[in-house]
Amino acid sequence: MLSMYVDVEQTNWDEILPFATSAYNTAKQEATGYIPFYLLHGREAETTLDIVFPYIADESEDDYVNRLITRAEESRQLARIRTLEAQHRDKTRYDA
Fold this sequence. Notes:
The chain is mostly helical. The chain is 61% helix and 0% strand.
């Protein structure tokens, strides 16, 4: 991913790394069906638009935390299942 954006001498990779990391962490992964940030934090990544146009929650902090924990666990379980399915597809394709 970095090789697409660094200069010819490959001296500016350290300047591009935070942007590449952010792009990867907020891109939906085919195997899991989720973005890595969501699986790690249990919520969507905050973008510049989210800061400019903030979301005002209509639930209590306790309800939000409980919902966040539940969604995070459900997402991780589903991602685990999807990863195993992707591994099985890859193995079947490799063994053919």
